[in-house]
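We treat protein structure as text, and this decision shapes the records that our systems exchange. This encoding replaces a full spatial description with a residue-level series of whole-number codes. Below, we set out a record of this kind in full and without editing:
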Amino acid sequence: MQRYRPSLMAFVMLIAAVIAICPAEAIADRSSWEAGLRAGASFNNEDESFNQYDLFASYGLPWSWQWGRAIQVDTNLTTSVGLLDGGGERGVAGSLGFEFVFGGVGRRLPVELRAGSALTLISRHQYGDEDLGGPLQFTHHISFYYWFLENLSVLARVQHMSNAGIYSENPGIDMIMLAMVYRF
């Protein structure tokens, strides 16, 4: 357990710093829920191929910034639970994280770019010949959302999951995912 603390502490300190330096005028009334289904496949050149299937949700946090007249930056709390499949083995993956949402002011544009990180727990770390090191992982992503209806979006996501070197094995998994999401 001692080996997890530096990475976990850095993540907590980053979130605290964002909250602490947030100017009062950046606080907005922007609480909304989104939920969706996501599926993807790995594109690593390693031994095993992986697939992942998730149920995910995000909650709009009150911190928001506007750059000029065109770009709005919002913040979300994110979570997911799903199935990680690789090397003939299946396990559960769950995450809790934070993301920045870059979009048009007032949601006038139907596209968004999102980037974030999450603490991820996996129920198993051995998948066929691939050893992911241990149960604690970190997932970083960049996502492109297209809102084709006011409350319905498709998205493409590129993500990297690894344990940041806290275990002796750290191959990481790079994945492309597609999803449908509904905003409440």
Notes: The first helix runs from residue 5 to 21. Residues 2-183 form a domain with the Porin fold (CATH 2.40.160.20). DSSP finds one helix and ten strands in the chain. Residues 1-5, 24-28 have pLDDT under 50 and may be disordered.
